[in-house]
Every structure is written in C-alpha cells, then in structure tokens.
C-alpha cells in the first residue's frame, strides 16, 4: 500500500503539478521572503519613503507578476485551442514524448526552454502537455502581453509576467527572484524563452541569460527538487507573423506593444488562412546538477556563499555556457519539413527559379542525405523521400508560381515571397551546415584532396558553429566533417577516384545540380565571413581596429554587396551576425580584445585567403574592390 501510495502521489504530481495555494497566500509569502524584506527596507531608505509605501510597491509588483491558475479558464482555452488548431493548422507533429514523460515522472523540477518564433508558442506547448496528461508549466510572458482581456486570461492559464529589463529596480528584481524561488521550491514546472523575444529571421537568437541565471541559482541553491532543463524545438510550415517580421526587418514599421485592437485586426486575417503543420520536438533533458558537476567544480560551496543580486564572473560564465548548450540542443532536435527543404532548394537557385524536374530530383537527393547523414539522433528527416511528393506538400505553403514551358514547368516566386521564405529556410538550414560547407569546396573546383578539404573546413567551422548553434565542439569538428563527406559519397553527391581524391559529379547530372544547390545553403554565411576577414586583413598594417566602427563597416559593406549582387535579403547585413563573427574570432585567438579595440593576429591572413577561395571570381573581385576603397581608412 505504501509503495502504491508513493507511486500515485508521483503520478498525480506529474499530471497535475504541485498543490496550488490561493494567490493571496502566494503573494504574502513573497513579501515575507527575507531577501524581499531587505529590498523593501533598502528601497525605503534610498527613495526616502516609508517602509509601508515600499511594501505597497512590492505588493503591486507581486500582483503584476504572479499567475492565477483557474481550471475554468484552462477548460475554456482547451476548447478554443482545439478549434483554433484545426482551423488554421493541418496538424501538430510532436516528437520524443516518451523521453519527456520519463523525465516528468522522475520527481524532477522541469524547466522547458523552447525556441520562440510565434505568439502561438505561448499556448502550443501547454496545449500538448495538457493533452498528454502532463503537468502544465507556468509560463514567463512579456508584460507587453498583459493587456485586456488577453492578459487576465493568460494569467489564469499559468502565465506570469516579467518586464523586459530589471535594471535599476532592485525591489522588482527581489520580488521576481522570490517568485522563481517559490516555483522551484514547489516543484512547479515552468517555461520561458531563452532567446528573450521572437526571432524575426527564423534563426535562433543569441540567448538572454537573466531568467536562466535566476532559475539556475534557485535550482542549484538547494531550494527544490533536482532540476531538468528540457530544450524544445518549435517549427512551422508558415509562421503567421512572417509578414510583420518582414516589415520590421525592412524598417517600414517600428515594433510596438500589442493591444486588443491589434489582436482583433490580426485574428480576422489569421482565421482566413491555413498555415500548414506545426512541429514540436522535446530535446534531450539536461540534468542541471550533473551538468554543474561536470562544468562548475565546487558549485555547492559557491552557491551557499552566493549573495542576493550577486552575479560573479564564475556564475555568468557557467550560465552562458549552459545557455549555449540549450540552443545547440534545440537545434539538435529540429524537424526537417517539406516546406523548409523546398525553400532551401528554391532560394539557393541563382534567380529564385528552378525547373520542376530539377527541383524534384534535388529534393529526393537532399532528403536521402538527411537520412543517411542525420544531423543528430533527435533530428527528424522528412517523412517522404520522393521529391514529387515533397514538392506537392510544400507548393501551396510556398505559394510557388508555375511558368509553363514546352520543356517543362519552371517554378519561381514573387520577390516579396522569396524574402518571406528565408524565414522558413532559416529554421532548418543548420541541418545541412556541414555537408553544405564541404560542397562549397567543389563549387569552383572539380576535385580536391580529402585531407585538404578537412583542414580548410575545420578552420571555418567555428564561424558557422557560432552563427547556427551547431552541436559539435571545435575539437570534434573534423570527425563530424568526415562523416558529412561519407554521407555525400553514399548519396553520390561526391565521388572518389582510385587514389581517394574527392571529385564532384559531372555537370548536367542530377547529382551535380543537387551538390550546387547544397553548396548555396551556406554561401551567404561564407560571403559574410570573407568580407569580415578581408576587412580585418586590410587593417593588418595598423594591427588593430576600433570594434564599434569596424562592425559598422562590415554592415555597410554587406549592404553594398547586397545592392551590387541584387540580393533581396535583409538579414544578409544584420549587424548582430557580424558582431558574432568578431566574438568568434576573439574566441579562436585570431583577434584579441584590448578595451574598445581589437588586435589582429597575422594568422588571419591565411583564413582570409581560404575563405576567398570558396567564392566565385566575380564575388572575389567585388570584395577586393570594396576593401580597397579609400573611405574605409577614413571611417
């Protein structure tokens, strides 16, 4: 009986979550927290107000933050969402639920960290968990969503609200930290977005570590059960906000706070369209304590000595490393859908137009490559392997235009739609990052020695890994690239002669077309790298550059290249990508941070030469010309 009682208690906790207290009791417990009381006294002294006034402000903060679960609201939302999913989506594809179920039944505090691409993300994961009989998490939502009547409804479904920045308000920080502590102590599952906001490009954003730092501090501080972090990949055939993202990237509309009017206007458009399928995949759980054992020696002693509001360097470094691991794990569990695969092929064609028969053959070969050379054991290849079936599934979502021709239809898209499809492409392009990098060495060369390809690819790998959150550490890159080459050989996308020298297929064959299409997936990234290192090598004589000024130079150069090459892609000159490149070059030792300046290592010249070899003669000439312009020296 005792064993069964324990079993059913665990089953209840995994299904319903911890017992809930009244919201008023929760808020009173927050105000009674020792750190909050200290923050109230400090705030009263600093602002020269009474303790009662500071306490009243702390209570207002707690009311603003705290969720207010209601079974009635959850039941209502269940019916609404069931109708909504069936109305606008063709199905929700969920992966790796068995592993998640085992984790939730293991008496662990579960922290869900999903990718964030749509407002639908807030409801989607909770809906799936509810349908699967798993405890609903409390969800960290931006305070911009706390508008009538949506804010109150989301709060009753488990949303708790946080401000975009806590800076300068220690009292708010203390109350919010206390709230996170309470969730951890009670074993309440929680969910927040490590990126901080929705991705406007389809790529994972660099993680924001503030919320993660609070959760880690609470979980490792012995304030609750052992914690498991569950990365979650969320992908869509089509994101309903993609038109809005396009306008924001183009600068024609400034991002503003949401309102009921925006919701009503947007919902009328949303309900008239279909958005294909949704793909949700629960990644490999990260045992937080085991991860700390491996990456943070003596963490128990350090956590006991940690003071409120303290973020020592060791904690920042640990959380930053953990955040990178989470982003890599999200990408490692991605689903390669037909729309994403077809977008990769179409957008890789020179004029965003491709013959239908070539598209069909390339889709088949790339789908086979995804199966023979999987990105990870958790990544999901396309369900279909026949290129014609994949095209039939993707065509309505991509809004392809068929141009009839006596020799076969040509597929293309309007200019604006091509830009919108970059969002879908960016969801999955990392799945082909290594094969595409290898393919680039054969875009302008018929054959190369395998070891030389590996040497040059390993040199460029850290830059790709930084931009796309690739899962292999630098020391494992060579082995991973070797597996990518083997996969290309198995699929006939590369050939090997009797000496082992690698060769590309003959021009005019389907394999050659697929290899060229594959190479173009990483082409823009490699062009950006070439621009960055060429600009840096242009400054080798002075030996250093001013970082802020140089980032602006990179962006301006990319803008000009986009105009000269007719590239209609706002993300090509995204300043954040160049910022990441520089940080990666610092990490691998080719740049050295000295205050606001970057000192350039002479070895960078070799990297610049290798990067340029991957580009065509016209692009090499354009980059060489732009880097020689006199205004670069004038700033």
Would you kindly provide a brief summary of this structure?
The chain is an alpha/beta fold and 635 residues long.
Determine the structural class based on helices, strands and strand pairing: alpha/beta
Mean pLDDT: 87
Please report which band the strand proportion falls in: under 5%, 5-15%, 15-25%, 25-35%, 35-45% or over 45%: 5-15%
The rough form would be described as globular
The tally of strands reads 17
Helicity level? 55-70%
Task: Determine Rg (CA atoms, Å).
Answer: 26 Å
Oligomeric state of the chains in view: single chain
Distance between the termini: 78 Å
Query: Biggest β-sheet, characterized?
Result: 8 strands, mixed
Count of DSSP helices? 29
General description of the model:
It is a single chain. Helix 16 crosses helix 17 (356-372) and helix 20 (433-440) crosses helix 23. The longest helix has 20 residues, at 313-332. Strands 1, 2, 3, 4, 5, 6, 7 and 8 form an 8-stranded mixed β-sheet that branches. This protein has a 3-stranded antiparallel β-sheet with strand order 9-11-10. It is an alpha/beta fold and 635 residues long. It has 29 helices and 17 strands. The radius of gyration is 26 Å and the shape is globular. Strand 10 (401-403) and strand 11 (410-412) form a beta hairpin. The termini are far apart.
């Amino acid at each position: 009986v005792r064993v069964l009682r324990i079993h059913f208690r665990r089953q209840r906790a995994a299904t319903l979550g911890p017992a809930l207290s009244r919201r008023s009791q929760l808020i009173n417990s927050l105000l009674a927290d020792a750190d909050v009381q200290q923050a109230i006294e400090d705030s009263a002294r600093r602002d020269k107000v009474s303790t009662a006034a500071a306490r009243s402000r702390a209570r207002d903060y707690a009311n603003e933050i705290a969720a207010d679960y209601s079974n009635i609201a959850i039941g209502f939302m269940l019916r609404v969402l069931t109708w909504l999913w069936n109305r606008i989506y063709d199905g929700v594809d969920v992966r790796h639920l068995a592993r998640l179920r085992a984790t939730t039944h293991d008496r662990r505090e579960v922290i869900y960290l999903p990718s964030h691409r749509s407002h639908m993300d807030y409801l989607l994961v909770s809906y799936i968990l509810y349908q699967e009989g798993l405890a609903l998490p409390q969800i960290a939502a931006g305070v911009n969503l706390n508008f009538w009547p949506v804010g109150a409804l989301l709060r009753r479904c488990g949303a708790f609200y946080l401000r975009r920045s806590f800076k300068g308000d220690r009292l708010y920080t203390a109350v919010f930290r206390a709230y996170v502590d309470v969730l951890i102590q009670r074993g309440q599952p929680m969910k927040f977005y490590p990126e901080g906001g929705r991705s406007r490009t389809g790529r994972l954003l660099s993680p924001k570590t503030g919320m993660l730092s609070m959760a880690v501090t609470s979980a490792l501080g012995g304030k609750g059960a052992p914690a498991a972090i569950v990365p979650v990949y969320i992908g869509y055939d089509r994101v309903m906000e993609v038109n809005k993202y396009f306008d924001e990237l183009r600068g024609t509309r400034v991002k503003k706070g949401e309102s009921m009017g925006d919701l009503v206007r947007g919902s009328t458009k949303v309900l008239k369209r279909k958005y294909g399928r949704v793909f949700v995949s629960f990644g490999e759980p990260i045992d937080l304590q085991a991860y700390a054992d491996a990456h943070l020696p003596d963490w128990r002693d350090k956590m006991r000595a940690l003071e409120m509001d303290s973020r020592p360097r060791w904690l920042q470094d640990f959380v930053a490393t953990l955040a990178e691991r989470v982003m890599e794990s999200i990408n490692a569990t991605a689903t390669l859908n037909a729309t994403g695969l077809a977008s990769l092929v179409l957008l890789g064609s020179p004029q965003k137009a491709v013959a239908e028969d070539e598209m069909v053959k390339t889709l088949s070969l790339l789908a086979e490559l995804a199966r023979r050379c999987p990105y990870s054991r958790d990544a999901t290849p396309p369900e279909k392997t026949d290129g014609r079936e994949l095209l039939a599934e993707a065509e309505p979502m991509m809004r392809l235009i068929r141009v009839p021709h006596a020799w076969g239809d040509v597929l293309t898209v309007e200019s604006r739609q091509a830009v919108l499809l970059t969002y879908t492409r960016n969801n999955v392009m990392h799945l082909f990052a290594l094969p595409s990098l290898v393919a680039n060495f054969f875009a302008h060369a018929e054959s190369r020695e395998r070891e030389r390809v590996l040497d040059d690819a390993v040199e460029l790998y850290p830059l790709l890994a930084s931009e796309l959150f690739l899962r292999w550490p630098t020391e494992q890159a060579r082995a991973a690239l070797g597996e990518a080459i083997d996969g290309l050989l198995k699929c006939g996308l590369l050939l090997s002669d009797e000496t082992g020298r690698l060769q590309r297929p003959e021009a005019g064959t389907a394999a050659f077309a697929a290899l060229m299409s594959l190479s173009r997936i990483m082409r823009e990234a490699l062009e950006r790298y070439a621009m960055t290192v060429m600009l840096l090598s242009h400054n080798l004589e002075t030996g250093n550059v001013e970082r802020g000024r140089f980032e602006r130079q990179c962006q301006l150069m990319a803008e000009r290249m986009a105009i000269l090459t007719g590239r209609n892609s706002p993300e090509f000159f995204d300043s954040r990508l160049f910022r990441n490149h520089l940080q990666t070059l610092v990490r691998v030792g080719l740049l050295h941070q000295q205050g606001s300046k970057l000192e350039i290592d002479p070895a960078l010249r070799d990297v610049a030469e290798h990067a340029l070899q991957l580009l065509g003669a016209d692009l090499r000439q354009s980059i060489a010309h732009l880097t020689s312009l006199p205004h670069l020296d004038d700033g």
